[in-house]
């Protein structure tokens, strides 16, 4: 569901740069460059990066100053920040699209971290999770597909049937590791129930894992027995790690959208407090959490040294 720079270079040679992957709109460093030259597609061919062009909001509370512009696109009079339609070009590697039901599943009407109503599906009016894009700018896979086709695809129109086929394809792709060099098969009979792509495909989305009855990654009891061989010993260590993830408590302090929303400061919780989505360990609640890495590190150090949290 993505590609490598090696694959892009092979495709360039095979098609003489005529494949749609190298379209000027996003497969080039900038549409204003000569499109028949490899150097105009260097970010794609050497690093596997696609151009993403974002309009600068008219009411933006910030300004962008160009310090370095090796592609020339952000200073381009036709496509840059000072063009008739001010645009910033950034470059990223396409992310794999898989297991998407876990980021588009059932969603609460109120977003706890934001203290506001969730965005809604324009087709149904139902609340959406706001989690499958980092900035929540698209409500559903269908609206995202439309934006991608009209933007990256540089299309003039797209039918509802075409969009539905895209969404149906995205929703049938499931990915999970099935083998580990130390643990062996991760999808054999009797393995922990969260492992392997079949488990990802069959499990129900939108389940909030808790610390008592319905853990994030379900049970690792099958691996706790240990044994004399290295594989069983490694599996037992993984099971111990799962228990630490679920049950090892530490204090959280001064963390935006945890301690700042009335839950207490400090607050004693576990890794599963934030990484709470069953099967994936992502956060079911839309919005960001700020400052958590530092506070976790500090509290774990204190727990190891005996330095009490209240002495800070």
Brief digest:
The chain is an alpha+beta fold. The chain has helices at 5-15, 42-47, 141-151, 160-170, 197-202, 230-247, 292-305; strands at residues 50-55, 87-92, 110-111, 116-117, 179-180, 184-185, 250-252, 267-269. The chain has a two-stranded antiparallel sheet with strand order 1-2. It has a two-stranded antiparallel sheet with strand order 3-4. The chain has a two-stranded antiparallel sheet with strand order 5-6.
Layout of strands and helices, then pairs:
Blueprint: H1 5-15, H2 42-47, E1 50-55, E2 87-92, E3 110-111, E4 116-117, H3 141-151, H4 160-170, E5 179-180, E6 184-185, H5 197-202, H6 230-247, E7 250-252, E8 267-269, H7 292-305
Antiparallel strand pairs: 1-2, 3-4, 5-6, 7-8
Describe the model.
With 312 residues, the protein is α+β, with helices and mostly antiparallel strands. Helix content is 25%, strand content 8%. The protein is built from seven helices and eight strands, in the order H-H-E-E-E-E-H-H-E-E-H-H-E-E-H. Helix 3 (141-151) crosses helix 4. The longest helix has 18 residues, at 230-247. Mean pLDDT is 87; it is low at 304-312.
Helix-strand topology string: HHEEEEHHEEHHEEH
Figure out the total of helices. 7
Main structural class: alpha+beta
Uncertain spans: 304-312
The overall number of domains is 3
The shape, in one word, is globular
Chain-averaged pLDDT: 87
Spatial strand sequence of the major β-sheet? 1-2
**How many strand segments?**
8
Separation of termini?
A: 47 Å
Strand content: 5-15%
State the major sheet: 2 strands, antiparallel
Measured as a percent range, the helix fraction is 10-25%
Cα radius of gyration in angstroms:
24 Å
